[in-house]
Design brief:
Structural class: alpha+beta
Strand order of the largest sheet: 2-1-3-13-14
Shape: elongated
CATH superfamily of the largest domain: DD-peptidase/beta-lactamase superfamily
Number of helices: 30
Number of strands: 18
CATH topology of the largest domain: Beta-lactamase
Length: 793
């Protein structure tokens, strides 16, 4: 404490001596010495003030942009997403900005900008004291405030938000002082910019950062938004419109206020005339031209593959957080695995087949609501419970203090709504509850396709319309039904069984734990039609016909825990409930992981993580991310080969549930196909996963809620709902000459221990009464021999 007192006393003494010395300069001196001294004092004081502001002396002035920040600053820039075939499919941005270089812009824009905003731009060092003095005089004499900021000062404001992001310190609370401090910071920052960048660089930075309104940041986005052109092709009158908007982006917006915009445009053209950059003839012809807009505001949901782009955002979220990147501001170039042609084929297949399915669904239910229990009675409060999750319900609940009568009254009041239809969205008047009833009649789908050898996702359809349904069905959790039998039989192959080993299709029962009753109960699995044939079937036939009894028996024989472990190794990420019913797909998974797990079998037992992004470049073109190429052995080659044969058996064995695929792919004799259907118990979920050696795809079809479904299996089965989407996709892709490399066959086994007798041969006739609901109709069954002959089975 004594030390601090000594320091304070010494400082005070030094200040007194310094002040005495300074006053001595003026005493007894001639007037001109006093004037020079006073002037020098003001200059020194001003320099010291600038230095104090810049370093935030004693915290009095608040933080300012440092020299390092100014040199290395980068404005927010949109990240661009590209497909595998080099098509930009969209952007991520908070400010829609794509930078350009100085030479990318028509010089007429630079001319118009300088003539209007800063005519002495090339002659000052960031601060135009002549313009500042004129503005100060006008304010004092005429009380007319006019702008005196140079382009460099405006750039300082745009880049560093010195008036909002940087505080003005302790002195900023004094009236009038805050504005002085902010203006000083702009001056200092402008001078630093001039010291570190050329005039052309400053112009370019300004054009890339300035806000042109309508969510258009930077000259490139503004040209696209207002005129659907590029900066290189700007005309003089278009450049004048854009420069004119800089004074007030709303008041001089050519779409909102065309007359104001035209007047302002002509002022800019007049400035160009006055500075000698337009002739009188050019000025006269341009000022009478109307403003011709080609207006289109780009938003974050413009572009292609919207569900996929949302998935990419989620896919990269951890990587961005760990590596310090922001998708919305860092101007990344993200190269994805999606192929735009395959994506188009996938969307077309989903749309066309779901449109037909929707008609069948509507005819199936008629006037009855599809949210029924097993006795065809409407589920109580089904629609009302959905409404309770909506923002409008929460607003009404708060407004009327939980008064249900008032809430119900407004929920049943008609109002304008925009609704989805296959003929295009339309507007009508409908109450909130009726609009829910209308929208919940729609069936939904998800679809994805993966290259099994790379894990690359080539197509992704999250649902029918992103604008209406944001919830992505590719990642939605649903019961996989019989598609899960892949893992049951894979584990059987792991433990030494072969496709031609046999098990009996017969009744059996077991004790299982019931969570609701909190006790063991007797469970007797049944086949889809409720009957057992008693036939001793090959595993290949049992899998092809999707016989439940044999799948459950194999599950118990191999061990449910080991089946779950194999499923996880093959690519299932979701937790699995290790109960006997797991063999029939009772535990929820999502479509992406299911298709990826099937890809493991096609890839000879080697598992990949699904890959959505191959590489990422930063805004300078440096590669900062490349997709990992690691793969791990999930199952042995022997097991994978056997399961490839089992999957193909679904299209070759009598009663195979995937036989419908031949309607779409029978002309591709140079390619092997297989697949597996699945349908959950109450027909809420219909699945199909189709395989070929170089491409695997899968589809899910169902209602938004599990209570919405077909009442009978015949209409809701996977072979009639999900399979046609995959079939049409395969047909479209393989018919396209660009995708010739996706053709191929599995070939003979590479393992000498695999004998023909273990998997080859069409089984002798086995009763088809035990077929799952995914079976063929009678007409298709008559074509089995013809199809088998055509593929050489």
């Amino acid at each position: 404490m004594n030390y601090i007192r000594k320091i304070t006393a010494a400082t005070w003494l030094y200040c007194k001596k310094a002040f005495k010395w300074y006053m001595g300069i003026f005493k007894g001196r001639p007037w001109y010495i006093k004037l020079l001294s006073a002037t020098a004092s003001v200059i020194v004081a001003f320099i010291l003030y600038l230095g104090a502001v810049d370093i935030n002396f004693l915290g009095l002035f608040g933080k300012s942009p440092s020299m390092g920040t100014i040199i290395n600053t980068r404005p927010a820039q949109a990240s661009e997403i590209y497909s595998a075939d080099s098509v930009m499919i969209g952007k991520y941005f908070s400010e829609n900005r794509t930078p350009v270089t100085y030479n990318d812009v028509n010089p007429v824009f630079w001319t118009a900008l300088i003539d209007t905003e800063d005519e002495r731009f090339y002659h000052h060092f960031g601060i135009d004291f002549q313009a500042f003095g004129a503005a100060l005089k006008d304010y004092v004499i005429h009380h007319d405030a006019r702008g005196a900021s140079t382009i460099t000062q405006q750039l300082a404001k745009n880049l560093f938000r010195v008036r909002t992001e940087y505080s003005t310190g302790l002195l900023g609370s004094i009236p009038g002082v805050k504005m002085l401090i902010m203006k000083t910071k702009e001056w200092i920052t402008a001078v630093k910019l001039e010291a570190n960048f050329s005039k052309e660089e400053i112009l370019t930075m300004y054009a890339n950062t300035v806000d042109f309104g309508s969510n258009a940041f930077g000259i490139k986005t503004a040209c696209k938004t207002y005129f659907n052109t590029t900066p290189q092709h700007l005309t003089p009158e278009q450049a004048a419109v854009l420069v004119g908007m800089l004074k007030a982006t709303t008041y001089y917006n050519p779409r909102l206020h065309p007359e104001n915009s035209m007047n302002r445009r002509n002022v800019v053209l007049g400035n160009m005339l006055q500075r000698g950059h337009l002739t009188q003839e050019q000025y006269d012809s341009l000022t009478i031209k109307p403003i011709e807009l080609d207006y289109s505001v780009e938003n974050a949901y413009d572009g292609k593959a919207l569900y996929f782009r949302e998935a990419v955002k989620e896919y990269l979220s951890d990587w961005c957080r760990e590596n310090g990147y922001d998708l919305y501001t860092d101007g990344l170039k993200i190269y994805t695995t999606i192929d735009t042609a395959m994506q188009r084929y996938a969307e077309q297949a989903a749309w066309e087949n779901m449109k037909q399915l929707q008609q069948r669904f509507n005819n199936h239910w008629g006037r009855v609501n599809p949210w029924q229990d097993e006795y065809h009675r409407e589920i109580p409060n089904f629609i009302e419970n959905i409404a309770k999750r909506l923002p409008c319900y929460k607003y009404l609940d708060k407004r009327f203090d939980h008064n249900q009568d008032s809430i119900d009254f407004y929920l049943n009041q008609p109002h304008p709504v925009k609704l989805f239809s296959y003929d295009g969205p339309y507007e009508t008047e409908m109450s909130t509850l009726d609009s829910i009833r209308y929208m919940e009649h729609f069936m939904h789908c998800g679809f994805t396709a993966i290259e099994p050898k790379t894990g690359y996702v080539k197509a992704w359809v999250g649902d029918l319309d992103f604008g209406t349904w944001k919830y992505d069905k590719v990642t939605a959790m649903r019961q996989p039904g019989s598609t899960f039998k892949l893992f049951v039989y894979t584990e059987a192959m792991n433990q030494g069984l072969t496709p031609n080993d046999r098990r009996e299709d017969s009744y059996f029962s077991m004790n299982v734990w019931d969570n609701e009753q909190k006790k063991e109960v007797l469970w007797a699995p049944t086949n889809a039609n409720g009957f057992f044939t008693g036939y001793n079937m090959t595993l290949k036939s049992a899998f092809a016909q999707s016989v439940n009894s044999i799948a459950v028996k194999i599950g118990q024989e191999m061990g449910i825990d080991r089946i779950a472990k194999t499923a996880h190794k093959m690519g299932i990420k979701s937790p699995l409930h290790e109960t006997p019913s797991l063999a029939l797909g009772a535990s929820d998974v999502n479509l992406l992981e299911l298709v990826n797990a099937y890809s493991t079998i096609v890839n000879d037992g080697m598992a990949h993580e699904p890959v959505l992004v191959t590489r990422i470049l930063d805004r300078d073109g440096n590669t900062i991310y490349e997709a990992p190429t690691e793969q791990t052995e999930a199952v042995s080659y022997r097991s994978a080969f056997f399961m490839q044969q089992m999957l193909m058996a679904g299209m070759r064995e009598p009663g195979g549930t995937s036989m419908n695929m031949w309607r779409y792919v029978r002309n591709f004799s140079d390619t092997d196909f297989g697949g597996k259907t699945g349908t959950s118990n109450n027909h809420s979920d219909a699945w199909f996963v189709g395989i070929s050696p170089n491409l695997v795809c899968g589809a899910w079809v169902g209602g938004e809620y599990r209570a919405i479904h077909f009442r009978t299996g015949e209409l809701g089965q996977g072979s009639r709902t999900a399979l046609p989407i995959c079939g049409q996709f395969f047909e479209s892709v393989l018919s396209d000459k660009r995708f010739k490399h996706y053709h191929g066959k599995f070939g003979a086994p590479r393992d000498a221990s695999i004998l023909d007798s273990m998997y080859q041969g069409i089984s002798t006739y086995e009763p088809l009464d035990s077929l799952e609901e995914d079976s063929l109709d009678a007409e298709q069954e008559q074509n089995i021999e013809e199809i088998q002959d055509s593929i050489g089975a």
